[in-house]
Amino acid sequence: MSTYWKKFLIAALIRAVRTFAQTAVSLVAVGSAFSEVDWLRVISVSGVASVLSLLTSLATGLPEVEKKPPAEEEENE
């Protein structure tokens, strides 16, 4: 695996985990008791958001990961 793909994978996974956490926080209502929260729904919706985050990263790229240098592209062909 090239250095580019390692950096890309790490950055994409970090984004997906952050998306999971942000979505979970948004689904837990303020003032709700722990037992009142539908945890299965929170995990399910957050998981879908994480998958969408990974797919978006693959489709559009990540600004924090530089594009492949020309030398690396030639090596992988």
The DSSP helix count reads: 3
Strand portion = under 5%
Q: What is the share of helical residues?
A: over 70%
* N- to C-terminal distance: 13 Å
> Based on helices, strands and strand pairing, what is the structural class?
mainly alpha
Keywords:
77 residues, mainly alpha, elongated
Compact summary:
The chain has 77 residues and is an all-alpha fold. Helix content is 70%, strand content 0%. Helix 1 (3-27) runs antiparallel to helix 2.
Overview of this protein structure:
This protein has 77 residues and is mainly α. It has one domain. It contains 3 helices and no strands. The longest helix is centred in the first third of the chain and has 25 residues.
Task: Please describe the topology of this protein.
Blueprint: H1 3-27, H2 39-60, H3 70-76
Helix pairs in contact: 1-2
